[in-house]
Design brief:
single chain, 101 residues, alpha+beta, Ribosomal Protein L30, Chain: A, three-stranded antiparallel β-sheet, 3 helices, 3 strands, binds L-tyrosinamide
């Protein structure tokens, strides 16, 4: 039996990458009523009346507005549900997603 025990000289560094977050983006259109956009934002994204109104107005004025960021699955599910809520009423309301840089 050797009286010295060699310690391993290399260390394994486990690199855990955080999942990339995805933005949900609200897109403006000329037909969906403002109040309906606010209702959808409150229902699907748990926003207050104030927050939802500001996001709706930004999209209305600038064309698009980032609503929130989530993991990819959650972002896509929420964007689809919110878009479907508009479609169910015959509105062209659109929510898209894109990865954060
Ligand atoms: N532009 C719409 C209107 O004037 C309101 C609206 C705002 C629609 C934001 C979509 O993402 C939107 N009735």
């Amino acid at each position: 039996m050797p009286d010295t025990v060699a310690k391993p000289k290399t260390r394994t560094k486990t690199k855990v990458e955080r999942p990339r977050l995805h933005k949900v983006i609200l897109v403006n259109d000329d037909y969906t009523p403002r109040e309906f956009v606010v209702t959808v934002l409150k229902g699907e994204f748990r926003m207050t009346d104030d927050q939802a109104y500001k996001v709706m107005l930004t999209a209305h004025q600038r064309g698009v507005c980032v609503v929130a960021v989530f993991t990819r699955d959650v972002a896509e599910t929420k964007a689809t549900r919110a878009t479907d809520a508009g479609r169910a009423k015959g509105y062209p309301l659109l929510f898209t997603t894109e990865p954060e840089e």
